[in-house]
Specification:
Length: 306
């Protein structure tokens, strides 16, 4: 069991990672310290944490949903059911409104896959293949994994793993590696780096120095852009949960001010939390979209000549 007396000095402990889950039926031990009802085990000397479990839940959920969706699409029939249509619509939005337009609008090639159902004559619909579709698995994986991690934070007594900078740093690192990999594959290592060295049109040593200076700035900016991916996601998710915790904390602060003040503060805090909670649901989708969109932009810049 995890003693939480140290949390008295940490007002952010409810939005941080922990070795257990804060459950509503916690009790007080013989020393007067609060303890959690459920703590995670230590496996072979490796301590499991709450965010590790939530990330695993998100990964398994995405795997199950999209394996099921893929099987339904492969059957050749239109995907039926509100649950499956919901996820398919989001996936198609990311493909048609983010990845394809951002990475490149090339002439599509037709092939005989019948995803999309049948046409008015009862024959399988012809779907177009786009060169940008080769990057879809990575972008889809980032978007839906981040989305589920964000949404888990809306479930009482759980949390958002994306509110931890370590998690978002790994996600940003994955985007960095993917960008470099796709850039190397499309243009070769020399072409990838040469793409960051624009032709200034200036002759002599001054032109060479200016080109090298711009190249250094481009390299530095390349790292900064991916670092911002981590900070942006972390700050928005962490900030939202912190605001909710602060609003609800007003109730405890007003508990010593009399029943009238306490009642007014409680009512205002609960109403405010409801509105902020609804906003957080929007932010969960928005931040997953922003991460996927920026990752797509970075990939597009790496696979095309400037």
């Amino acid at each position: 069991m995890l003693s939480v007396n140290e949390h008295e000095e940490d007002v952010f402990h409810h939005v941080r990672d922990a070795i257990g889950f804060d459950l509503p039926r916690g009790h007080v031990d013989s020393h007067g310290h609060g303890v959690l009802d459920f703590s995670l085990p230590n496996v072979f000397g490796f301590q499991l944490t709450k965010f590790m479990v939530l990330q695993l839940v998100a990964a398994v959920f995405v795997l199950i949903v999209f394996r099921g969706l893929a099987r339904r699409i492969q059957s050749g029939q239109p995907v039926a059911g509100r649950f499956w249509n919901f996820w398919e619509a989001i996936a198609l939005f990311i493909r048609d409104e983010v990845v394809r337009p951002t990475i490149g609008d090339h002439e599509p090639e037709h092939f005989g896959d019948n995803h999309g159902g049948t046409n008015s004559h009862g024959h399988p619909s012809v779907v177009t293949s786009h060169p940008a579709d080769q990057y879809l698995p990575f972008i889809w994986s980032c978007f839906f994994y981040i989305l589920i991690c964000n949404l888990l934070g809306a479930v009482p007594w759980l949390g958002s793993a994306t509110g931890n900078l370590n998690v978002t740093a790994v996600l940003a690192g994955s985007a960095f590696v993917a960008t470099v990999f796709f850039g190397f594959r499309a243009m070769g290592p020399s072409g990838f780096f040469h793409n960051m060295m624009p032709d200034t049109g200036l002759p002599g040593a001054f032109g060479s120095v200016l080109t090298l200076g711009i190249f250094a700035i481009e390299i530095f900016g390349f790292f900064i852009k991916h670092s911002v991916l981590a900070v942006r996601l972390f700050a928005n998710i962490m900030g939202g949960h912190t605001v909710i915790a602060v609003i609800l904390g007003f109730i405890a602060q007003a508990s010593h001010e009399g029943i009238v003040i306490w009642g007014l503060v409680t009512f205002g805090s609960v109403v405010g939390q409801i509105f902020i909670g609804c906003l957080e649901l929007f932010v969960a989708f928005l931040q997953a979209y922003v991460f996927a969109f920026l990752a797509t932009i970075f990939i597009a810049g790496a696979v095309h000549k400037h």
